[in-house]
Amino acid sequence: MVDATKVSKIKIDTGYAGVKEYPIFSRFDKAGEAINPAQCSIVLGSNGSGKSTIARAFTSETNSIEFIDKDGEVVAGDSSNIYLFDEKFIIDNFRKLDDNYLGPIVLLGEAAKAQENVDKLNMEINKKNKIKCGLEVAIENLEQVVKRLNKKIENSISHVDKNGTGLDSWRGRTGHYSVDKQYRKRPSGYVDIIKNETVNLENMPARDDLLKEFTDKVDELNQSSNFRRIDWNPSKIILPFDVNKINEAMDAVKKLARKMVMINTIVGSTSLRWVLMS
């Protein structure tokens, strides 16, 4: 580092005007002898007099400046302890605080850089807080969903019929169907008929056996009532109908319909269209 207390002159290579010496820190006694250099010097000059040239020499990387003591010797040392207070220094080191801050109006040097780091950290904290709030809302929504699901599970467990069957089975759902408020207006005995036709799934016949039984019932219906399957077309109906055959057919259909309650759960929805012919 340069011992600033020994600097009396500065020698600058101006380039366009050659090498110049500026005795900006030199002091002389009444006899004209050089004495200890001044610790402060103010340079005044009009525009174009070279003030900016001197300033730029302090920051030049080409070693265009030398420091001379009162005896004319070069003061050795690097210039790491020399700072130039110019416009760039102000931009780099001064920081004006926002109006909502308490304290000094400007920060200088390391304090300004520290404040920038604080502001960056505050921005990161705000981002993290927004993410945190979003996660808290999402967690709360999920907790509400879990509560609703748990409530449904509790309700399902509480609806158990006298045989110990819950809503997860056909028998349990049918039992619940008969007591649920929205189904109380169904015809009397409607649910009981369905329950009586329900069988235990463990003892239910195989699918092929059910299909064969269904086919046999259809054949029985055809034979007992002299039915003939045709496409629905009202113009082909011949009147009058035989009342006895109608009654006989209706009884057979009721029996078949009760069997279809069980079959429908295995083979799906089946639709048959029949008409009576005299």
From TrEMBL:
Keywords of the record: Coiled coil
InterPro entries named in the record: CR006_AAA (IPR026866), P-loop_NTPase (IPR027417)
Segments forming domain Protein CR006 P-loop: 26-166
Coiled-coil parts of chain: 111-159
Domain of life according to the entry: Bacteria
Pfam families: AAA_13
SUPFAM superfamilies named in the record: P-loop containing nucleoside triphosphate hydrolases (SSF52540)
Signal sequence residues: none
Annotated protein name in UniProt: AAA family ATPase
Source organism of the structure: Rothia dentocariosa
